[in-house]
Amino acid sequence: MTAATPMIRMTDIRKTYRLRRGMFAPTEELVAVNDLSLEVAEGETLGLVGESGCGKSTAVSIMLGLLQPDRGEVEIAGQKIDTMPVADRVRLIQPVFQNPNASLNPVKRIQTLVGQPLRLHGGTNIDAEVKRMLDLVGLPSRLADAYPGELSGGQRQRVAIARALILGPRVLICDEPTSALDVSVQAQIINLLLSLKKELGLTMVFVSHNLAVVEHLADHVAVMYLGQKIEEAATDALFEDASHPYTRALLAATLLPDPKVGLPEHKLGAAAADPFAARQGCHFAPRCPERRQSCTEGPQKLRKLRESLVRCERAV
Q: What does UniProt give as the signal peptide span (predicted)?
């Protein structure tokens, strides 16, 4: 990998499913991800945001090699992920999932859970490595003999992070890693991830609904809607001057910690996002307060606008 090669590159990714909307209904095509291209430089963090069902988790599953796209390529450190041996891939890129209660086997001790990747891939000095990992994520070594049910939610997520890091990956994919935690614990996990990124030189993708978390953690942000990337920019530029109406609506909907402010104004219209709806124009048009007739007549293409890439012909 040269200095100019991004650590993560996704090019023109498309992924569809055939689903039924009812028991006796015919199958319909659902486009989970379409025309998605992303690049993440080594040592940087990309925030991937959007509502539930926008394609974020499908995108990161393809990035991890857990799903095969219908079209497009994924490269990690300059290597095509679909031709990479699994043993090489898991040493290069690792996930941290949303719910540590589901990702940690409740009948296994922490020592076994954290050390399992090393056992599977021929590691040595496993006990010492487990102790080092627990120390790295801020857990006392005495917890090595505990079971997941004896730990708090924040401690369990630290265990999941330790397990992901024990093989020494260069890329960490975090899929909503703080959403199941209390707010105070969320801050601890975010600070831990920031510390690990700096200490280990990690490249990260951070998937979240929480824009306040993304603002604190990410260097760049990509916003998705119904499978498409609709805006991408450096974090400061996006939060200060978002170009797409959907991005502005998401930012306006962020809850503030001051109870006197009240609930934010709802700017997403009365319609819900429908992934099955066939449309020629902008996918966001049915909910957009700024739509015009031209928005529904033809496909919207990503274009450069100031410091952003934006999929909206009316953005200025």
A: none
Q: What is the DSSP letter of 273?
A: P
1 domain residue, yes or no: no
Number of domains in the chain: 1
Question: How far, in Å, CA of 149 to CA of 128, rounded?
Answer: 23
Phi, psi of 207 (to 5 degrees): -95, 130
Our CA dihedral for 155, 159, 165, 167, rounded to 10 degrees, sits at: 160
Under a CB-based contact definition with an 8 Å cutoff, are residues 190 and 30 in contact?
A: no
Mode of pairing for the β-strands spanning 220-225 and 45-49:
parallel
> Which pLDDT score is estimated for 253?
76
Q: What is the pLDDT of residues 187-239, one digit of tens each?
A: 899 999 999 999 999 999 999 888 888 998 999 999 999 999 999 999 999 99
Residue 2 lies inside a defined structural domain of this protein: no
Q: For residue 199, give its domain range.
A: 8-310
The domain that contains 269 carries what CATH number? 3.40.50.300
Name the residue with tokens 């974020």: 56
204 part of a folded domain: yes
Phi, psi dihedrals of residue 54, rounded to the nearest 5°: -85, -10
In a domain, 306, yes or no: yes
